[in-house]
Amino acid sequence: MSLVLYHCHEARSMRSLWLINELDLKAEIVTLSFGDQLRSDQYLSQHPLGRVPCLIDGETTLFESGAITEWLCEQYDDKNLWRAPGSQERAEWLQWLHYAETICVHVASLTQQQIVIYDPELRSPTVRKLETRRLEKAIEVLEQHLEERDYLLESGFSAVDVGIGYSLHAARLFTDLSQFPRAHAYYLRLAERSAFQESLPEPGATNRIYTQENYWLENE
Ligand SMILES: N[C@@H](CCC(=O)N[C@@H](CS)C(=O)NCC(=O)O)C(=O)O
User: Fold this and answer.
1) pLDDT above 70 as % of the chain
2) Residue 73 Cβ contacting ligand 1 at under 6 Å
3) Is residue 112 predicted with pLDDT exceeding 80?
4) Predicted confidence band at 219 (pLDDT cuts at 50, 70, 90)?
5) 100 lines ligand 1 (CB under 6 A)
6) Which long-range contacts (CB under 8 A, 24 or more apart) does 185-193 make?
7) CATH no., domain 90-197
8) Where in the chain do CATH 3.40.30.10 domains reside?
9) Topology classification of domain 3-76
Protein backbone atom coordinates (compact mmCIF):
# COMPACT_ATOMS: atom_id res chain seq x y z
CA MET A 1 0.00 0.00 0.00
CA SER A 2 1.30 3.47 -0.83
CA LEU A 3 -1.04 6.31 0.05
CA VAL A 4 -0.56 10.01 -0.65
CA LEU A 5 -3.18 12.49 0.56
CA TYR A 6 -3.30 16.09 -0.66
CA HIS A 7 -4.68 18.17 2.16
CA CYS A 8 -5.32 21.75 3.28
CA HIS A 9 -5.70 22.49 6.98
CA GLU A 10 -9.33 22.06 8.11
CA ALA A 11 -10.63 21.68 4.55
CA ARG A 12 -12.77 18.70 3.58
CA SER A 13 -9.53 16.73 3.24
CA MET A 14 -9.59 16.64 7.05
CA ARG A 15 -12.22 13.91 6.62
CA SER A 16 -9.74 11.74 4.72
CA LEU A 17 -6.87 12.50 7.09
CA TRP A 18 -9.01 11.75 10.14
CA LEU A 19 -10.15 8.45 8.62
CA ILE A 20 -6.55 7.51 7.72
CA ASN A 21 -5.71 8.13 11.38
CA GLU A 22 -8.70 6.11 12.61
CA LEU A 23 -7.62 3.21 10.42
CA ASP A 24 -3.97 3.54 11.49
CA LEU A 25 -2.83 3.68 7.88
CA LYS A 26 0.56 4.93 6.82
CA ALA A 27 0.24 7.78 4.33
CA GLU A 28 2.28 10.64 2.99
CA ILE A 29 0.35 13.82 3.75
CA VAL A 30 1.05 16.68 1.37
CA THR A 31 -0.31 19.86 2.93
CA LEU A 32 -0.95 22.59 0.39
CA SER A 33 -1.77 26.21 1.06
CA PHE A 34 -5.35 27.20 0.27
CA GLY A 35 -4.51 29.28 -2.79
CA ASP A 36 -1.91 29.20 -5.53
CA GLN A 37 -0.55 25.76 -4.65
CA LEU A 38 -3.93 24.27 -5.55
CA ARG A 39 -3.62 25.71 -9.04
CA SER A 40 -0.13 24.45 -9.94
CA ASP A 41 0.10 22.39 -13.13
CA GLN A 42 1.43 19.50 -11.09
CA TYR A 43 -1.58 19.51 -8.76
CA LEU A 44 -4.12 20.14 -11.53
CA SER A 45 -2.84 16.98 -13.21
CA GLN A 46 -4.07 15.08 -10.10
CA HIS A 47 -7.29 16.99 -9.41
CA PRO A 48 -8.80 18.76 -12.43
CA LEU A 49 -10.44 21.47 -10.28
CA GLY A 50 -7.47 21.94 -8.00
CA ARG A 51 -9.38 21.17 -4.82
CA VAL A 52 -8.78 18.96 -1.81
CA PRO A 53 -8.91 16.17 -0.89
CA CYS A 54 -7.15 14.09 -3.50
CA LEU A 55 -5.90 10.62 -2.63
CA ILE A 56 -3.39 8.58 -4.56
CA ASP A 57 -3.38 4.90 -3.73
CA GLY A 58 -0.83 3.16 -5.92
CA GLU A 59 -2.25 3.33 -9.46
CA THR A 60 -5.57 4.81 -8.29
CA THR A 61 -6.24 8.54 -7.98
CA LEU A 62 -9.46 9.68 -6.33
CA PHE A 63 -10.98 13.02 -5.54
CA GLU A 64 -14.28 13.63 -3.62
CA SER A 65 -14.05 13.08 0.10
CA GLY A 66 -17.08 10.75 0.20
CA ALA A 67 -15.58 8.50 -2.47
CA ILE A 68 -12.28 8.47 -0.57
CA THR A 69 -14.13 7.41 2.60
CA GLU A 70 -15.79 4.58 0.73
CA TRP A 71 -12.52 3.52 -0.92
CA LEU A 72 -10.44 3.53 2.25
CA CYS A 73 -13.11 1.53 4.09
CA GLU A 74 -13.56 -0.91 1.23
CA GLN A 75 -9.83 -1.52 0.90
CA TYR A 76 -8.50 -1.26 4.42
CA ASP A 77 -11.16 -1.25 7.12
CA ASP A 78 -10.33 -3.62 9.94
CA LYS A 79 -12.02 -1.53 12.62
CA ASN A 80 -15.69 -1.96 11.68
CA LEU A 81 -15.96 1.56 10.25
CA TRP A 82 -17.50 0.40 6.96
CA ARG A 83 -20.92 -1.06 6.31
CA ALA A 84 -20.48 -3.24 3.25
CA PRO A 85 -23.18 -3.84 0.61
CA GLY A 86 -25.68 -6.29 2.05
CA SER A 87 -25.06 -5.31 5.66
CA GLN A 88 -28.03 -4.28 7.75
CA GLU A 89 -26.95 -0.66 8.18
CA ARG A 90 -25.75 -0.20 4.60
CA ALA A 91 -28.50 2.20 3.50
CA GLU A 92 -28.14 4.39 6.60
CA TRP A 93 -24.35 4.40 6.27
CA LEU A 94 -24.64 5.60 2.66
CA GLN A 95 -27.19 8.23 3.54
CA TRP A 96 -25.00 9.84 6.23
CA LEU A 97 -21.91 9.51 4.07
CA HIS A 98 -23.53 11.86 1.56
CA TYR A 99 -25.46 13.97 4.06
CA ALA A 100 -22.07 15.21 5.25
CA GLU A 101 -21.86 17.14 1.98
CA THR A 102 -25.41 18.50 2.34
CA ILE A 103 -24.16 20.23 5.47
CA CYS A 104 -20.87 21.24 3.93
CA VAL A 105 -22.24 23.03 0.87
CA HIS A 106 -23.68 25.66 3.22
CA VAL A 107 -20.38 25.90 5.09
CA ALA A 108 -18.60 26.34 1.74
CA SER A 109 -20.96 29.11 0.75
CA LEU A 110 -20.46 30.88 4.11
CA THR A 111 -16.70 30.45 3.78
CA GLN A 112 -16.95 32.15 0.41
CA GLN A 113 -19.07 34.97 1.80
CA GLN A 114 -16.96 35.65 4.87
CA ILE A 115 -13.44 34.70 3.89
CA VAL A 116 -12.87 34.12 0.18
CA ILE A 117 -14.68 37.31 -0.89
CA TYR A 118 -12.13 39.60 0.58
CA ASP A 119 -13.89 42.93 0.00
CA PRO A 120 -16.76 43.27 2.55
CA GLU A 121 -18.63 45.49 0.05
CA LEU A 122 -18.96 42.50 -2.28
CA ARG A 123 -20.34 40.17 0.38
CA SER A 124 -24.08 39.61 0.63
CA PRO A 125 -25.85 39.73 4.03
CA THR A 126 -28.85 38.09 2.35
CA VAL A 127 -26.83 35.10 1.15
CA ARG A 128 -25.16 34.86 4.55
CA LYS A 129 -28.51 34.82 6.39
CA LEU A 130 -30.06 32.35 3.97
CA GLU A 131 -27.10 29.97 4.06
CA THR A 132 -26.85 30.17 7.85
CA ARG A 133 -30.52 29.26 8.16
CA ARG A 134 -30.16 26.39 5.68
CA LEU A 135 -27.11 25.16 7.58
CA GLU A 136 -29.05 25.25 10.85
CA LYS A 137 -31.98 23.35 9.32
CA ALA A 138 -29.52 20.66 8.16
CA ILE A 139 -28.07 20.40 11.69
CA GLU A 140 -31.60 20.16 13.16
CA VAL A 141 -31.96 16.85 11.30
CA LEU A 142 -28.94 15.52 13.21
CA GLU A 143 -30.33 16.94 16.45
CA GLN A 144 -33.50 14.84 15.99
CA HIS A 145 -31.59 11.77 14.86
CA LEU A 146 -29.25 11.82 17.85
CA GLU A 147 -32.10 11.77 20.34
CA GLU A 148 -31.55 8.18 21.40
CA ARG A 149 -28.05 7.41 20.24
CA ASP A 150 -24.48 8.61 20.64
CA TYR A 151 -23.41 8.01 17.02
CA LEU A 152 -25.21 8.08 13.69
CA LEU A 153 -25.59 4.32 13.47
CA GLU A 154 -27.20 2.35 16.21
CA SER A 155 -24.27 -0.08 16.27
CA GLY A 156 -21.82 2.71 17.17
CA PHE A 157 -18.99 4.80 15.74
CA SER A 158 -18.29 4.37 12.02
CA ALA A 159 -16.69 6.23 9.12
CA VAL A 160 -19.84 8.29 8.56
CA ASP A 161 -19.29 9.94 11.95
CA VAL A 162 -15.96 11.12 10.57
CA GLY A 163 -17.66 12.70 7.53
CA ILE A 164 -20.42 14.38 9.52
CA GLY A 165 -18.04 15.17 12.38
CA TYR A 166 -15.88 17.22 10.03
CA SER A 167 -18.99 19.00 8.73
CA LEU A 168 -19.88 20.03 12.30
CA HIS A 169 -16.28 21.03 12.97
CA ALA A 170 -16.54 23.49 10.08
CA ALA A 171 -20.19 24.43 10.74
CA ARG A 172 -19.38 25.53 14.30
CA LEU A 173 -17.47 28.45 12.81
CA PHE A 174 -20.65 29.82 11.25
CA THR A 175 -23.37 29.06 13.75
CA ASP A 176 -23.56 28.55 17.51
CA LEU A 177 -23.64 24.77 17.87
CA SER A 178 -24.75 25.01 21.50
CA GLN A 179 -28.29 25.77 20.27
CA PHE A 180 -28.32 22.08 19.21
CA PRO A 181 -27.42 20.35 22.50
CA ARG A 182 -27.34 16.78 21.15
CA ALA A 183 -25.43 17.64 17.97
CA HIS A 184 -23.05 19.75 20.02
CA ALA A 185 -22.41 16.95 22.54
CA TYR A 186 -21.93 14.55 19.62
CA TYR A 187 -19.34 16.89 18.05
CA LEU A 188 -17.49 17.24 21.37
CA ARG A 189 -17.51 13.45 21.76
CA LEU A 190 -15.94 13.05 18.33
CA ALA A 191 -13.44 15.85 18.94
CA GLU A 192 -12.04 13.91 21.92
CA ARG A 193 -10.83 11.13 19.64
CA SER A 194 -7.09 11.05 19.20
CA ALA A 195 -7.50 10.43 15.44
CA PHE A 196 -9.51 13.67 15.21
CA GLN A 197 -6.94 15.63 17.17
CA GLU A 198 -4.09 14.28 15.04
CA SER A 199 -5.83 15.61 11.95
CA LEU A 200 -5.93 19.21 13.23
CA PRO A 201 -3.22 21.69 12.20
CA GLU A 202 -0.24 21.93 14.53
CA PRO A 203 -0.33 24.99 16.80
CA GLY A 204 1.18 27.92 14.92
CA ALA A 205 0.54 26.32 11.51
CA THR A 206 0.35 28.84 8.69
CA ASN A 207 -1.79 28.68 5.54
CA ARG A 208 -4.99 28.15 7.49
CA ILE A 209 -8.34 28.85 5.83
CA TYR A 210 -9.97 29.67 9.15
CA THR A 211 -8.07 31.99 11.44
CA GLN A 212 -10.88 33.06 13.80
CA GLU A 213 -12.58 31.17 16.61
CA ASN A 214 -15.85 31.78 14.83
CA TYR A 215 -17.35 33.96 12.11
CA TRP A 216 -20.91 34.26 13.40
CA LEU A 217 -20.31 36.47 16.44
CA GLU A 218 -19.03 39.26 14.22
CA ASN A 219 -22.40 39.32 12.47
CA GLU A 220 -24.55 39.65 15.56
N1 LIG B 1 -17.35 17.64 -2.79
C2 LIG B 1 -15.92 17.81 -2.71
C3 LIG B 1 -15.61 19.26 -2.41
C4 LIG B 1 -14.11 19.57 -2.48
C5 LIG B 1 -13.86 21.05 -2.20
O6 LIG B 1 -14.57 21.92 -2.72
N7 LIG B 1 -12.83 21.32 -1.40
C8 LIG B 1 -12.51 22.69 -1.05
C9 LIG B 1 -11.93 22.74 0.36
S10 LIG B 1 -13.12 22.35 1.60
C11 LIG B 1 -11.43 23.21 -1.97
O12 LIG B 1 -10.48 22.53 -2.23
N13 LIG B 1 -11.57 24.47 -2.43
C14 LIG B 1 -10.55 25.10 -3.18
C15 LIG B 1 -11.13 25.88 -4.33
O16 LIG B 1 -12.34 25.84 -4.54
O17 LIG B 1 -10.34 26.53 -4.99
C18 LIG B 1 -15.37 16.85 -1.65
O19 LIG B 1 -16.11 16.52 -0.73
O20 LIG B 1 -14.20 16.43 -1.75
Assistant:
1) 99
2) no
3) yes
4) low
5) no
6) 186/142, 186/146, 186/150, 186/151, 189/150, 190/161, 190/162, 190/165, 191/165, 193/22
7) 1.20.1050.10
8) 3-76
9) Glutaredoxin (3.40.30)
